[in-house]
């Protein structure tokens, strides 16, 4: 009787122990099944391959073009052609007598007016006649300037005087007069003619001499 009770008691203990073990196992399984959803295995991060940087080939450097250096054309030099006239051809003895019988060739003449000096500088001629009563000298000069010299002379004539239309018809004849120096100037047919005298105080005073000289050229 005693043996049966002990045996039953032992059997009961083993059964409870088995049940307890089984319950513990179930609890562990339940805990494992309740793991947080975030505990998923980490997905492999796609690592972008570095893009290769395209290295462009160096562009050809344009060779510098040669800059054409335009050589400045030098301005034409002021020059004069030799005059193929002599003083007694510019004003003959008869011409002088008609203009004024009291005027004759000045034997000691040398160019003194600016126009006469300039004319002789550029291969021109300068001639002088003297008034036998007053001693005043009339200078007549003739030159053949090139365009550069003619333009310079015209500018100077205009700056120091006035345009005179009575010495001839423009544009064939360009006339100027300066009362300050008593000088008349004419440019015509390649010639530059100047008549100068202290006795000339207005354009008309030189007209007769000037027209005679122009007629002899």
From TrEMBL:
Residues 39-81 have a biased composition (Low complexity). GO terms for molecular function: ATP binding. Residues 1-32 form the signal peptide. Residues 39-83 are annotated as: Disordered. It comes from the Bacteria. Keywords: ATP-binding, Nucleotide-binding, Signal. This is Iron ABC transporter ATP-binding protein.
């Amino acid at each position: 009787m005693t043996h049966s009770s002990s045996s039953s008691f032992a059997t009961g203990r083993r059964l409870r122990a088995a049940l307890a073990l089984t319950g513990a196992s179930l609890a562990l399984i339940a805990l494992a099944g309740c793991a947080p959803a975030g505990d998923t295995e980490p997905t492999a991060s796609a690592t972008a391959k570095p893009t290769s940087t395209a290295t462009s080939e160096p562009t050809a450097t344009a060779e510098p073009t040669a800059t054409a250096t335009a050589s400045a054309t030098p301005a034409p030099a002021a020059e004069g052609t030799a005059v193929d006239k002599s003083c007694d051809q510019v004003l003959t003895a008869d011409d002088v007598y008609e203009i004024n019988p009291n005027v004759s060739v000045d034997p000691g003449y040398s160019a003194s007016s600016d126009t006469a000096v300039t004319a002789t500088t550029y291969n021109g001629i300068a001639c002088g006649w003297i008034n036998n009563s007053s001693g005043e000298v009339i200078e007549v000069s003739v030159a053949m300037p090139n365009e550069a010299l003619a333009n310079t002379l015209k500018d100077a004539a205009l700056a120091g005087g006035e345009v005179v239309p009575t010495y001839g018809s423009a544009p064939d004849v360009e006339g100027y007069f300066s009362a300050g120096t008593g000088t008349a100037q004419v440019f015509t047919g390649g010639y530059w003619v100047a008549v100068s005298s202290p006795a000339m105080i207005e354009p008309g005073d030189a007209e007769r001499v000037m027209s005679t000289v122009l007629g002899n050229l």
